[in-house]
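We now fix the convention by which a protein and its fold are recorded. The integers have meaning only within a learned vocabulary of local backbone shapes. The record below shows the convention in full.
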Amino acid sequence: MKRVLSYCGSAATLLLLSGLSLAQSSDSWEVARTIDGHPDLQGVWENNTITPVERPEVFGDKKFLTDEDVEFLQQRMAQITAEGGDALFGEGVLAAAFSGEIKSYDPSTGNYDSQWMVDRKIHRGTSQVIDPPNGQLPARTEQAIAAARDLAQHRLDHPADSYTDRPLGERCLSFGAPRLSSGY
């Protein structure tokens, strides 16, 4: 009986280990795609990260923050909040932490402070753009620049000829791509 249990235990262990090794194989992974073939970016997007879309120059080619960087940012953010500092949006947190300069979003009344902000998350990435490796969005093509110019001219010439001429936000359809800036 002990021998049978031993064989069963060994077989179960082998099955589990082989399953784990198959689960870790990354050769078969493919980017999820929508019906029309574009990368599927659907999901839950948080907007309370301090990680900017493009990598700030201060980080150069550095892709990830060190433990020391994270600790420094946490301390600096706590200090700014404790001092009643201004509401820091997006890259404003990084800029204030590393430069020491806090630019006000409400210079006239001074009532827009950090109490309006949700807790900010520090992720180790120095930018949300991971490809190209420099963390910068690629330059727009001439075709994209021309299309944007044509669209801007169309909006000037036909500001409200049809409901389709109004922005999506006014039509309560969508804000477009996920909002990456942090609000309340």
